[in-house]
């Protein structure tokens, strides 16, 4: 099908070059369009970024060997499969992730554990992207002989912020349209950089020896830092919700996962190799030691563009999360409001904070304590619910609606998050804080390994033993008898099999069909 034909089929509510009309509301079947492979380019464009290059170098700064750092980079990024798994809830529900999470926390509980945490995490990554892009842009201009006064550097930050948020305001279709082009440009530039990085690499590099306990602590800390990348993307449904309900789940999972995994591992690997020959405490400056002078401004341009493309997705999801707080603003408006807040905070990071890299590392380490349990609860809910989500019911915020639960709160999800996050904090070992469990284990940080498992397990047990799920007739995972009695047809929300509470559940093999 030609691009013109595809554009004709796309609904006017979601067309490239026009501001997207939908936010956290339900996307009707008549407005669904697209193919799973489009998700690859969305995630690819957002993850061909300088941050992963820096994180590869951070692993080496922890004192790990090249082989250990590469293994940690691969294993930590396996979490991208979880991002793909969460993405299947988009076509099933026709809603973004923050709306799906009402099934896990309740209408009111989701404003804290879905919308609230989502806005906090989104703002954090928006700040990182604006700060990194601003620092790189200023360095690039200096190399080109343009010396800026302080006020001019502030203007650079403002320009970066505007470029970051304008595409997010336009929304889903515009992002899909431009993602392949951003991906190609960034990948080509990093491919050229890779030639110079490998040419300067010291393959005889050997790290300083460490005590066994200290060594394992560094390995686990490195894993937590790498895992924070994919774990921060509990927003897969945001970009898949326009796909038709019949879209194969395998395609959604694998195209989403590969779009994030491939650039994360490749760029992390480049950072590891670069760290054998340059000082990765200041990689933006040190990179000039191993690339030709003509390429250094280009490399810094990659950093700027990659940070902006990553921020496009981050800002888009943050705007949706802000709507999930219950504010009566359009998606485009919430993108602008959260963007202004992130820009102000980024100004502090760039021009006031004493050490941006130290602050970045500590923040990434601590973010896993929340992100791990949150992604686990979401993933387990999809499995237990057989990916059955009624997008119409999820948008019903009235008391007594299917996802109102107990006063607007669903305690299994809330308890799982509180317990999982608390244990993760106790097990964390960061540059700012060391939990008592980590201290007892000689500094070993198990938060990224055990917290998701514990949080997910608690949720599964409570889900299966708590009303309404003890009584199959009351399960609000489809358009069931309860919803019909409330006078809602919900005809577009689920197939007939799911409308019959007494119908047999699909086989487990059908979950990934």
Automatic annotation (TrEMBL):
<keyword id="KW-0812">Transmembrane</keyword>
<feature type="transmembrane region" description="Helical">
    <location>
        <begin position="252"/>
        <end position="278"/>
    </location>
</feature>
<dbReference type="Pfam" id="PF02133">
    <property type="entry name" value="Transp_cyt_pur"/>
</dbReference>
<keyword id="KW-0813">Transport</keyword>
<dbReference type="GO" id="GO:0005886">
    <property type="term" value="C:plasma membrane"/>
</dbReference>
<feature type="transmembrane region" description="Helical">
    <location>
        <begin position="298"/>
        <end position="322"/>
    </location>
</feature>
<feature type="transmembrane region" description="Helical">
    <location>
        <begin position="446"/>
        <end position="465"/>
    </location>
</feature>
<dbReference type="InterPro" id="IPR026030">
    <property type="entry name" value="Pur-cyt_permease_Fcy2/21/22"/>
</dbReference>
<keyword id="KW-1133">Transmembrane helix</keyword>
<protein>
    <submittedName>
        <fullName>Nitrate reductase</fullName>
    </submittedName>
</protein>
<comment type="similarity">
    <text>Belongs to the purine-cytosine permease (2.A.39) family.</text>
</comment>
<dbReference type="GO" id="GO:0022857">
    <property type="term" value="F:transmembrane transporter activity"/>
</dbReference>
<feature type="transmembrane region" description="Helical">
    <location>
        <begin position="178"/>
        <end position="201"/>
    </location>
</feature>
<feature type="region of interest" description="Disordered">
    <location>
        <begin position="480"/>
        <end position="513"/>
    </location>
</feature>
<feature type="transmembrane region" description="Helical">
    <location>
        <begin position="151"/>
        <end position="171"/>
    </location>
</feature>
<feature type="transmembrane region" description="Helical">
    <location>
        <begin position="70"/>
        <end position="92"/>
    </location>
</feature>
<feature type="transmembrane region" description="Helical">
    <location>
        <begin position="213"/>
        <end position="231"/>
    </location>
</feature>
<keyword id="KW-0472">Membrane</keyword>
<feature type="transmembrane region" description="Helical">
    <location>
        <begin position="404"/>
        <end position="426"/>
    </location>
</feature>
<feature type="transmembrane region" description="Helical">
    <location>
        <begin position="334"/>
        <end position="354"/>
    </location>
</feature>
<dbReference type="InterPro" id="IPR001248">
    <property type="entry name" value="Pur-cyt_permease"/>
</dbReference>
<feature type="transmembrane region" description="Helical">
    <location>
        <begin position="366"/>
        <end position="384"/>
    </location>
</feature>
<feature type="transmembrane region" description="Helical">
    <location>
        <begin position="112"/>
        <end position="145"/>
    </location>
</feature>
<feature type="transmembrane region" description="Helical">
    <location>
        <begin position="40"/>
        <end position="64"/>
    </location>
</feature>
């Amino acid at each position: 099908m030609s691009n013109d034909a595809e554009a004709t089929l796309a609904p006017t509510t979601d067309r490239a070059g026009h501001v997207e009309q939908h936010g956290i509301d339900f996307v009707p079947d008549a407005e669904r369009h697209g193919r799973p492979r489009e998700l690859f380019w969305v995630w690819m464009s957002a993850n061909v970024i300088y941050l992963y290059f820096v994180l590869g170098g951070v692993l080496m700064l922890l004192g790990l060997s090249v082989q250990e750092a590469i293994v940690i980079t691969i294993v930590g990024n396996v979490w991208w499969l979880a991002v793909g798994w969460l993405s299947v809830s988009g076509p099933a529900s026709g809603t973004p992730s923050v709306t799906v999470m009402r099934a896990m926390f309740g209408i009111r509980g989701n404003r804290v554990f879905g919308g609230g945490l989502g806005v906090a995490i989104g703002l954090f990554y928006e700040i990182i992207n604006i700060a990194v892009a601003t620092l790189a842009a200023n360095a690039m201009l200096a190399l080109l002989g343009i010396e800026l006064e302080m006020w001019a550097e502030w203007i650079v930050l403002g320009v970066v912020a505007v470029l970051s948020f304008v595409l997010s305001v336009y929304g889903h279709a515009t992002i899909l349209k431009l993602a392949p082009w951003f991906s190609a440009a960034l990948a080509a530039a990093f491919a050229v950089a890779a030639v110079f990085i490998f040419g300067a690499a010291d393959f005889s590099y050997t790290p300083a020896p460490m005590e066994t306990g200290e060594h394992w602590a560094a390995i686990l800390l490195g894993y937590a830092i790498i895992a924070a990348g994919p774990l921060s993307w509990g927003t897969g449904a945001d970009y898949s919700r326009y796909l038709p309900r019949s879209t194969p789940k395998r395609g959604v999972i694998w195209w989403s996962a590969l779009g994030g995994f491939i650039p994360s591992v490749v760029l992390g690997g480049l950072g590891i190799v670069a760290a054998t020959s340059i000082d990765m405490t200041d990689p933006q400056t040190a990179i000039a030691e191993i690339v030709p002078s003509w390429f250094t401004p280009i490399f810094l341009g990659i950093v700027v563009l990659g940070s902006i493309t990553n921020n496009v997705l981050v800002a888009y999801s943050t705007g949706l999360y802000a709507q999930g707080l219950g504010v009566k603003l359009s998606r485009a408006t919430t993108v602008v409001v959260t963007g202004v807040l992130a820009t102000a905070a980024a100004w502090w990071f760039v021009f006031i904070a004493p050490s941006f890299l130290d602050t970045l590392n500590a923040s990434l380490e601590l973010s896993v304590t929340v992100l791990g349990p949150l992604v686990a609860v979401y993933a387990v809910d999809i499995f237990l619910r057989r990916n059955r989500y009624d997008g119409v019911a999820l948008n019903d915020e009235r008391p007594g609606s299917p996802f109102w639960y107990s006063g607007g709160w669903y305690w299994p999800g809330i308890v799982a998050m509180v317990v999982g996050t608390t244990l993760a904090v106790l097990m964390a070992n960061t540059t700012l804080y060391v939990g008592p469990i980590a201290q007892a284990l000689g500094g070993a940080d198990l938060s990224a390994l055990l917290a998701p498992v514990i949080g997910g397990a608690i949720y599964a047990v409570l889900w299966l033993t708590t009303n309404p799920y003890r009584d199959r007739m009351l399960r609000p995972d489809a358009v069931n008898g309860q919803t019909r009695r409330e006078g809602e047809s919900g005809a577009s929300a689920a197939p007939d099999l799911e409308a019959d509470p007494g119908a047999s559940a699909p086989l487990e093999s059908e979950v990934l069909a």
